[in-house]
Amino acid sequence: MNFHKDNAHVTNITLNIQDLNKQKDFYINVLGMKLIEESDSGFVAGFDGSTHTFTFEVLENGRVAAQSEAGLFHIAILLPTRADLGRFIKHTFQKQIPLSGGDHLVSEATYLVDPEGNGIEVYVDRKPDTWTWSNGQVAMDTLALDFAGIVELSGNTEWAGMPEGTMIGHLHLKGGESINPEFYGKYGFEIATKVMSAYFMGSNKYHHHIAVNQWQSNKARIDPAHTYGLKSFNISVPDAKSETVETPEGIEMIVN
Question: Which residues pair with 42 in a beta bridge?
Answer without folding.
Answer: 39, 57
